[in-house]
Design brief:
- By secondary structure, the chain is an all-beta fold.
- 0% of the residues lie in helices and 46% in strands.
- The chain has strands spanning 3-6, 14-17, 39-41, 43-51, 57-67, 79-81, 87-90, 108-115, 117-125, 131-141, 145-146, 153-155, 161-167, 172-173, 182-189, 191-199, 210-215, 219-220, 227-229, 235-242, 246-247, 261-268, 270-278, 294-300, 308-309, 316-322.
- The strands form 7 sheets. The protein has a 5-stranded mixed beta sheet with strand order 5-4-8-7-6, with no helix packed on it. The chain has a 5-stranded mixed beta sheet with strand order 10-9-15-13-12, with no helix packed on it.
- Strand 19 (227-229) and strand 20 (235-242) form a beta hairpin.
């Protein structure tokens, strides 16, 4: 036979006796009138669950036998590692102070855990390893296999725009040591078209429009030599560049006119043409000017014309006309 009695006053904990109380003989001496009754706690099953902030189980629930009327006060693990290797930290604000009742279905203790996080550092570099933007950081759960997520286009402090090219790690297992959680991202300049028009002093185009690439957001000036030879081998000298430089802009969707334009003005490089009149033996027939020739000025120079050149008279080109008697 089991005897169940309530414990001390003001305490609702229940105890159970394993012993039957035997009759005793009451003596005159009160000190001898003592009966010892032993009790043990009355236990009931209690379920302990381990949840993440979204209410998902991160560890198999446990069943423990706890004393009815007691307040759950078991040792709570401060850190856990789930089956996937992710690490969790106990949230002390979770409500674990559950009073144990006689009904096991009511005895459910929920322990809340949060992700134990490490710091992921993203470095933004150009092709030769120069930093184009300050590093950014992100907190990710330790032990998690993390696939980097980042912006594909970034702008540096000077307003120049860069686009993503590659990274040194496709994914990373987040480590407790932040120095091991570094991902280097490589970017290249985001280039757009710049239109260059070449004209002469009278506004006539001397060549087809040129299209060059320039980094979006950069301060750009075209690299043009002082002299230029067009498709017809005509030689020109640069006189004006308008504008001198531009801030490269992005062409809006649907826009037809390129906002990135240069106009380069050239003047012809002229040379004198000397026409000499000779007979079949090479003798000069005419001596109408100091050079025994007729001078025709202001002809635009062309490499393809059959002129001869004289070091003694570098500003003149010679073209011989052979005359027959």
């Amino acid at each position: 036979e089991r005897h169940w009695v309530q414990a001390s006053k003001g305490d609702s904990k229940l105890f159970a006796s394993n012993y039957k109380v035997e009759p005793i003989t009451v003596l005159r001496e009160e000190a001898r009138n003592i009966t010892i009754v032993k009790y043990k706690p009355k236990l009931v099953e209690t379920t302990i669950k381990y949840f993440d902030p979204l209410g998902r189980a991160i560890k198999t629930e446990e069943i423990k036998k706890l004393q009815i009327g007691s307040i759950f006060n078991e040792e709570i693990p401060s850190k856990l590692v789930d089956n996937l290797g992710n690490k969790w930290t106990y949230n002390p604000n979770s409500n674990s102070k559950v009073k144990i009742t006689e009904n096991p279905k009511d005895n459910i203790v929920i322990l809340a855990y949060e992700e134990q996080k490490g710091t992921i550092t993203f470095k933004y570099l150009d092709k030769i390893g120069n930093e184009i933007q300050a590093p950014t950081k992100k907190l990710v759960q330790i032990g998690n296999i993390y696939v980097p997520q980042f912006e594909m286009v970034v702008t540096d402090a000077n307003g120049c725009v860069w686009e993503y090219a590659e990274r040194d790690k496709e994914k990373i297992e987040v480590n407790e040591e932040d120095s091991k959680n570094i991902i280097s991202l490589t970017f290249v300049p985001l280039n757009v078209d710049v239109e260059i028009t070449l004209i002469d002093l009278w506004g006539n185009e001397i060549s087809d429009k040129k299209i060059v690439s320039a980094q979006l957001g950069s301060n750009f000036r075209p690299a043009i030599k002082d002299s230029y030879t067009n498709e017809k081998s005509l030689l020109y000298k640069l006189t004006k560049k308008e504008p001198e430089a531009i801030k490269v802009k992005e062409m809006a969707i649907g826009e037809k006119n390129n906002p990135n334009k240069f106009t380069l003005t050239f003047e012809p490089i002229n040379s004198n043409i000397i026409i000499q009149f000779q007979d079949l033996d090479g003798n000069v027939i005419s001596d109408s000017n100091p050079y025994n020739s007729i001078k025709i000025e202001s002809k635009n120079f062309s490499h393809s014309r059959p002129f001869s050149y004289s070091q003694s008279r570098p500003n003149n080109l010679f073209f011989s006309l052979l005359l027959y008697p």
